[in-house]
């Protein structure tokens, strides 16, 4: 059982110790000290941001000639180099290569792929839906040429 020592039992002393471990410690820092440390931190952050800004400004001034040279080089490049579209008109007599380019498939595609590509492109370019009759004729010509080559 509990023995009494100095008016407190061992059980009571144990509980007091347990609560003492979890009790909040007194505020050892004054408000003035917290304000001083916060002010110092804010000043340090502000100086860091200012230094980064000045360094960035200096770097942009230093590399300005390089930036101008880069922009001139980009301006001189042909825009068709970045285009995914075929540059050039139609050939006099359609070749297998041109037919596959018109339909957007490989020249050695299967008959099913040719029909699917033809259907997909004709839905987008049909004259009844506002497409060009000339383009529709070229799309049909490309399908006929590739289908004819498949039969041989």
UniProtKB/TrEMBL annotation:
Where it sits in the cell: the answer is:
Mitochondrion inner membrane
Q: Which sequence ranges are marked TM in the entry?
A: 38-60
> What are the UniProt keywords, alphabetically?
Membrane, Mitochondrion, Mitochondrion inner membrane, Protein transport, Translocation, Transmembrane, Transmembrane helix, Transport
Please name the InterPro entries in this protein's record. DnaJ_domain (IPR001623), J_dom_sf (IPR036869)
Q: Which organism is it from?
A: Hippocampus comes
What SMART domains does the annotation carry?
A: DnaJ (SM00271)
- What's the protein name? DnaJ heat shock protein family (Hsp40) member C15
Which PANTHER family does the UniProt entry name for this protein?
A: DNAJ HOMOLOG SUBFAMILY C MEMBER 15, PTHR12763
Domain J, first and last residues per copy: 98-152
> What SUPFAM superfamilies does the record tag this protein with?
Chaperone J-domain
Q: Could you tell me the Gene Ontology terms of the biological process aspect for this record? A: protein import into mitochondrial matrix
Q: What GO CC terms are in its UniProt record? A: PAM complex, Tim23 associated import motor
- Gene Ontology molecular-function annotations: ATPase activator activity
Topology of the protein relative to the lipid bilayer = Single-pass membrane protein
């Amino acid at each position: 059982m509990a023995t009494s020592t100095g008016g407190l039992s061992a059980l009571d002393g144990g509980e007091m110790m347990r609560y003492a471990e979890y009790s909040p410690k007194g505020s050892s820092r004054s408000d003035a000290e917290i304000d001083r440390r916060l002010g110092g931190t804010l000043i340090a952050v502000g100086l860091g941001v200012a230094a980064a800004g000045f360094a960035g400004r200096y770097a942009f001034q230093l590399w300005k000639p390089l930036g101008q040279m880069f922009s001139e080089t980009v301006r001189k490049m042909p825009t068709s180099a970045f285009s995914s579209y075929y540059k050039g008109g139609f050939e006099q007599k359609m070749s297998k290569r041109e037919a596959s380019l018109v339909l957007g498939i490989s020249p050695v595609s299967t008959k099913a792929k040719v029909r699917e590509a033809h259907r997909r492109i004709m839905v987008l370019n049909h004259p009844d839906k506002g497409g060009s009759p000339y383009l529709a004729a070229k799309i049909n010509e490309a399908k006929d040429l590739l289908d004819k080559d498949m039969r041989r």
